Amino acid sequence: MSKPDRRVALAALGVVAAIAVIVGIVLKSDPGEDEQEGGATTAREATEKQSKTSGDTATDTPAAPQKPKAPAVPTIVVRAGEPVGGVAELTYQKGERARFRVTSDSAEEIHLHGYDIGKDVEAGGSVTFDFTADLEGVFEVELEERATQIAALTVNP
């Protein structure tokens, strides 16, 4: 082969190589119709898909921790001016959050002695007491107008 023929052959080979590179780039960045419809997947997509379906715990997102359930709020039920089941015993530790609810079939003022907290409850309604138990001792919860005790609230040191 003569020197000019080699140059032409090398130039042609360079053009073919350049076209192959361009075609490869275009195909990689702009998937054809078959690939867009799910006909072909890349190695990365296949790996991600397998990871999701195989239950690979190293890549799975852990479940969010559950919040602890709030303690149940004791409820004192008042019917015909009397606590159902007798005088309720409520016990808390000093500094603890004290919560209890009173439901009544008649309108009443509920009074917590010692803490001097009074709340009105409507007939058929309920009222919630929520406070920090910062005084030690035993305190009476009563229907104020009737002077009827409905609970004994104890706060321990």
Structure description:
Residues 30-43 have low confidence and may be disordered. This protein is 27% helix and 35% strand. It is rod-shaped and about 125 Å long. With 157 residues, it is of the alpha+beta class. The chain has 2 domains: 3-53; 75-156, Sandwich (Immunoglobulin-like), CATH 2.60.40. The chain has helices at 3-29, 33-36, 43-53; strands at residues 75-79, 82-83, 88-93, 97-104, 108-112, 117-121, 125-132, 137-143, 148-156. 13% of the residues are buried. The chain starts with a helix and ends with a strand. Strands 3-9-8-5-6 form a 5-stranded mixed beta sheet, with no helix packed on it. Strands 2-1-4-7 form a 4-stranded mixed beta sheet, with no helix packed on it.
